[in-house]
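Mods, move this if it's the wrong board.
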Amino acid sequence: MSVSTISRSDSSEFCGSTSERSSETDAICCCCSDVTSVLIKIFIDISLVSWYSIYKILLRFLHSQQPVLTYKLHQKTHFSKKENPVVMTSSFIHARKRYVHSVSIPILAISVFLTSIFIVSCGDEGDLTEDTSGMTEVLQPTPPPTPPTAQTPVPPADAGGVEQPIVEEPVVPVAPKTSFKDDIQPILAERCTNPGCHAAPVGGGLDLTTYDTFKKGGNTGPGFVAGDGKGSLVVKRIDGGGMPLGGPPLDADQVQLFIDWIDEGAGNN
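Not the wrong board. Structure tokens:
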């Protein structure tokens, strides 16, 4: 068992005993507080002179000062003629004093005793609670932060829950814009396949009457290289190379047709 485990177990036992001790002390404090408050109220009630005693004392004072006024007050308060207010007041006050002294002193002593117990027990409990909270904070380490979990992407599914296969659209080849039969061959027939030029008998070994003979080339190599319009032999000859021989050169649009046709693959289309 590691040191951290022992310290945590000891801390849990200490906290448990502290909580039990705290509940018992709270109960004692509440009982002492209630009993003390009741006894103090009784002591105050016994110590105070009632309104009737105050009235009798006032009546005695008035009797010593004004006998006539005392007699009138005596008649209004419905005292019997045989009753002497002075005698009644004196006897009541003496009895009251004896009763107060015989009862109030024990009640006051008990109240002081219970108040002392209440102050001592509640004061100890406050110190104990403060120490326990400090120890609890020390023994409980801060947990390490939890790293965020990576979410796995969910593939889309249709209403039935079955994953649909990805259908790749076939790549449609772009049709060449330049045609050999419609664009290139008419120029060759008009400007290059005249008798004594690139027709039978073949001049320079280059026959331009058909696609196959044009591709085969002559003594200096093939007539064109598919995909390399400006690097092909035929373009070099017709674009500033002196061809067609003995006639006006091809215009720029016609030369561009040869370049585009070769760059597009030089197909027999």
